[in-house]
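Table S2 (text version). Query chain:
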Amino acid sequence: MTRFTTMTREAALDRLAAVVPHVGRAYASARNTDVRPGREPTTTALSPYLRRRLLLEEEVVSAALDEHGPEAAAKFIEEVFWRSYFKGHLETRPAIWTRYDALVAEGKDRIDSQSGLRRAYENAVTGSTGIDGFDEWARELTDTGWLHNHARMWFASIWIFTLGLP
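Corresponding structure-token output:
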């Protein structure tokens, strides 16, 4: 299954309509669970549409409130607000992004110049490390362009601390 191949306003609205029934209490209790590839995620998977401004935070929050009310939709709305807060935090601190770009360039140089690191990188991006969960996530990311929030954190931890990749 490939996700996010159609990045249009219509696709964004379709996704919003599909997830709004699930952003109440069920979202609050299940959002931290990664259900694995091929199944509907426990998160909304709205971020790509929000990031590209195909959906606006206010319309996502409004849809959740209309469907569930403020109490049942509270956890979902908190997550939308946190996303907006951190986006604003980065926008007002451009040096963070500049430093990130520099670190990415340094990491690419290290991978290009160190054969052991290059092999570790190639194994990681092809899902061939021998670490079952990590390899599944690498293939899911390649196949769908998306990972559950917690899977992204675990993936990053293994990438950095276990595989020693930049």
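Notes on Table S2: The chain has a mean pLDDT of 92. The radius of gyration is 18 Å.
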